[in-house]
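cron nightly-structures :: item 1 of 1
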Amino acid sequence: MNKKSLNNLLLILFFPIFLFTGCAHKPVKSLPETSDKAPLTQIREPIPDKAEQTPSSSNVEDSIEDDFFDEEFEAHQVQVADPISLWNKGMFHFNDKLYFWVLKPLAKGYIAISPDYFRRGVRNFFYNLAMPIRLVNCLFQGKGKAAASEFSRFVVNTTAGGLGFGNPADQNPDLVVSTGEDLGQTFGKYGIGNGFYIVWPILGPSTLRDSVGLVGDFFLNPLTYVDYSETWIALKGFDLVNQTSFHIGEYEALKNSALDPYVALRNSYLQYREKKIKE
């Protein structure tokens, strides 16, 4: 088997795993690694009664107000069909084991040997490299100012920031913060619905709309056009481990605080995407 055939075979084998990991996303502030005593959300506890007193009118009003806000919260939850729940739950458990058995240990070992400034530089590099995804989607959504900002940030960070490892654009008050737009958000802006819910191996929760968007974003990512499949796979894997190193503890906190982690992760993802589309 010649080298070209071997490259093609490796690409086919690993394509489902690393297909979408090149899509740009902004990192969020990591939560500390938690235990069962550190849930994501604070649970409201009832106020104890005093000697079984009859509730006052103010308490009744507070109760009515609480019920109203609870109903409003339920009404604003994003409802998406889950017709392939058997597949989704299987992929959820696969990703769960993969995270705890492989990805988390790798990320923790990577943290132990890599200084913070190095990991931040790597994150900045891959995020800067994926600028075409955000630029094109800003243009698709008619966000001219955001598109100009994305291009300006790319030029500044690529030159003054040393190929994007630095992020001097954040020090310029004339450059707004990067928007993090993607094709899934663009579809949502044009009124295309979520379709059905789907969980991908490695990638985690998504929807039919966002999955199609990820495919489009894949072809906008410059890393897609790396000549050698071995190099492409290595870069994708390195980016994935580096990104995970900033978020250790977040999934654990969500899982520990939820009665049903599968449902909690699904709802969190859908609400997050809905918020991004409305921004």
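cron nightly-structures :: done
Residues 78 and 270 are 6 Å apart (CA to CA).
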